[in-house]
Structures are given as C-alpha cells and as structure tokens.
From TrEMBL:
<dbReference type="InterPro" id="IPR000524">
    <property type="entry name" value="Tscrpt_reg_HTH_GntR"/>
</dbReference>
<feature type="domain" description="HTH gntR-type">
    <location>
        <begin position="4"/>
        <end position="72"/>
    </location>
</feature>
<dbReference type="GO" id="GO:0003700">
    <property type="term" value="F:DNA-binding transcription factor activity"/>
</dbReference>
<comment type="function">
    <text>Transcriptional repressor for the pyruvate dehydrogenase complex genes aceEF and lpd.</text>
</comment>
<dbReference type="Pfam" id="PF00392">
    <property type="entry name" value="GntR"/>
</dbReference>
<protein>
    <recommendedName>
        <fullName>Pyruvate dehydrogenase complex repressor</fullName>
    </recommendedName>
</protein>
<dbReference type="InterPro" id="IPR036388">
    <property type="entry name" value="WH-like_DNA-bd_sf"/>
</dbReference>
<dbReference type="GO" id="GO:0003677">
    <property type="term" value="F:DNA binding"/>
</dbReference>
<keyword id="KW-0678">Repressor</keyword>
<dbReference type="InterPro" id="IPR036390">
    <property type="entry name" value="WH_DNA-bd_sf"/>
</dbReference>
<keyword id="KW-0804">Transcription</keyword>
<keyword id="KW-0805">Transcription regulation</keyword>
<dbReference type="InterPro" id="IPR011711">
    <property type="entry name" value="GntR_C"/>
</dbReference>
<dbReference type="Pfam" id="PF07729">
    <property type="entry name" value="FCD"/>
</dbReference>
<keyword id="KW-0238">DNA-binding</keyword>
<dbReference type="InterPro" id="IPR008920">
    <property type="entry name" value="TF_FadR/GntR_C"/>
</dbReference>
Length: 238
C-alpha cells in the first residue's frame, strides 16, 4: 500500500487513537519520527496524515512546540449543555442523575477490564488521595479526586464512556461555585466519607468485583448529591 491509500490508513489509525483516548486533550502527541517508526511508514506519510487531522480540528500545532490534541471531541459532545447548565442551576440534579447511571457502569467495566497499567495508575492516585487527606490539602485532594474518576473512565476501555465522563465531570466542576457551598467546601465537610468511598471503590476494582464497584460508585454519587442538592432527593437508578 502506498500513496493516498497509505496516508488514509495512517490517518484512520491516528484518528482511532484519538477516539480511544490514547492521547488526551491538551497532550502533545509523539513526534513525526516516533510515529513513523511505530507505524512502519515514512515521515512524509505521517506528516500528511497529521495535516489532515489538523485541518479537521482534531489536532492543533504550536510553533516550535509540536502537535497537540484539541478538545474538539469533548466540546462537540457537550458544549451546548455547558452553557445551559451554567444558565440553569435547576439542571444540576439531572446531571447528577446522569452521573449515577454513567459512572456506575464505568466503575463496573473498570473492575472487569482494567489492565495492570490502569491499576498502577489508580493505585498511584489512591496513595495521593490518602496523602493529601492526611496533610489537610483539600485543593490537591479535590484535583486528585477528578483525576481518579478520569482514570476509572480510562480503565473502562470504552471510548464513549471516557469522553462523556470527562466532559460531564468537567461541566459539573465548572458549574458549582468553588467559593460558595461548592466542591471544596464539600471536601472540607465530608472528606473522611469521600475518601472511604474511593478506598472501597479501589478495593472492588483491584479485586475484580464489578457489581460491588458499581454499587459503591452509586453510593458515592448519591452521597455527593445529598450534600449538594439536599432539597432534590437522589432517585433509585436501576
């Protein structure tokens, strides 16, 4: 295979890696030389494929820096809702309800599909959460919390769940005021319980217990719901 057909094949291969989250938004992808070596093609073929993906907005170039993943895959799915939720606080319970369904399934699949690399990343994050909690560093603990949920989505090895989960969690964090009864305040008030949820969830995933992982995740989001939306009871999601 050569010429336009080869360029198309390499374009599709790189596109698949973007869809599957091999490289996340904002991440610098490997150099042309590294990609050419790993794909077994000439640098000119890789360059042509990258140019196609840049033209489609999936990648973006930075002068004297390299090629980076754009956020188009996420914003294309979620951008209309981002503004709606910002303008309509009453939509927050709907978002939490969606998280009950979405992240329960994500946790289930992570317990089934997590690779050794996924488990190592989750273990690293859990250690960080424990350390931040012991030090009383709520800012770092909140950041690691988000990273933990992202790592779970990656461990599900489902491209749609990964993109949706990342977008929805980001939208929720943007919507809640961190200076007024938001996530940081929640962390200060209930960090012991939240940490216990994460440790139990990690244990269920590490020991390959998918049903337990789904149940613990739903309990966790239900707890967050009761703290953030005390006047809107969390539903029972089948």
């Amino acid at each position: 295979m050569s010429g336009p057909n080869l360029t198309e094949r390499i374009t599709r291969e790189l596109e698949t890696r973007l869809i599957e989250g091999v490289w996340v938004p904002g991440e610098r992808i490997p150099s042309e030389r590294a990609l050419a070596l790993s794909l077994g093609v000439a640098r000119s073929t890789v360059r042509a494929a990258l140019q196609r993906l840049v033209a489609r907005g999936l990648l973006k170039t930075r002068a004297a820096s390299g090629v980076y993943v754009s956020d188009r895959l996420q914003t294309g799915l979620i951008s209309p809702w981002r503004q709606l939720v910002s303008d309509h606080p009453e939509l927050r319970p709907d978002m939490l309800e969606f998280r009950l369904m979405l992240e329960g399934t994500t946790a289930y699949l992570a317990a089934v599909r997590a690779t050794d690399e996924d488990l190592a990343r989750l273990a690293e994050l859990v250690d960080g959460l424990v350390d931040a909690h012991e030090r009383g560093d709520t800012v770092r603990e909140s950041r690691l919390d988000g990273d933990f949920h992202t790592a779970l989505a990656n461990a599900s090895h489902n491209a749609m769940l990964r993109h949706l989960q990342g977008s929805v969690v980001k939208m929720l964090h943007e919507h809640i005021s961190l200076n007024n009864s938001g996530l940081f305040e929640l962390r200060e008030q209930a960090s012991e319980t939240i940490l216990a949820h994460h440790l139990a969830l990690w244990e269920a995933i590490r020991t390959r217990q998918p049903e337990a992982a789904r149940r613990i995740m739903r309990e966790h989001i239900g707890f967050v719901w009761r703290k953030l939306e005390p006047d809107a009871p969390a539903p029972i999601v089948p």
